[in-house]
Amino acid sequence: MILVTVRLPPQATLAQAMRRLGLTEEEVDTGYGLVLIDPGQGLYGLRVAEEAAGRIDPAAGGGPYADPRIEPYGPPD
């Protein structure tokens, strides 16, 4: 999965985002959901399959971003 940003209307839902962007449930990390990043800009974060990220129009928001796994540093205590 790749993290992308998209511009959507205020209070958009995941279902609305998927319809607007032409994405299926298999192409979206529904567990991650649709995350509001900047309410003033209508900017949301969404994790999608790599192939789906390539189909999203760059004018719809931002581009794909790195989404590294967050893990503890060093040995467990």
Shape: globular
* Arithmetic mean of pLDDT: 86
Q: State the assembly state of the protein chains.
A: single chain
Q: Estimate what percentage of residues fall within beta strands.
A: 25-35%
Spatial strand arrangement across the major sheet:
2-3-1-4
Major pleated sheet: 4 strands, antiparallel
Number of helices: 2
Rg, rounded, reads 14 Å
Low-confidence stretches: none
| Distance between the ends | 31 Å
Given helix and strand content, the structural type is alpha+beta
Structural features, described:
This protein is of the alpha+beta class. 18% of the residues lie in helices and 29% in strands. The protein contains 2 helices and 4 strands, in the order E-H-E-E-H-E. The chain has helices at 14-21, 50-55; strands at 2-7, 34-38, 43-48, 61-65. It has a 4-stranded antiparallel sheet with strand order 2-3-1-4. It is globular and about 45 Å long. The mean pLDDT is 86.
Topology, element by element:
Layout: E1 2-7, H1 14-21, E2 34-38, E3 43-48, H2 50-55, E4 61-65
Antiparallel strand pairs: 1-3, 1-4, 2-3
List keywords for this structure.
77 residues; 18% helix; alpha+beta; globular
What would you say about this model in short?
With 77 residues, the chain is of the alpha+beta class. Helix content is 18%, strand content 29%.
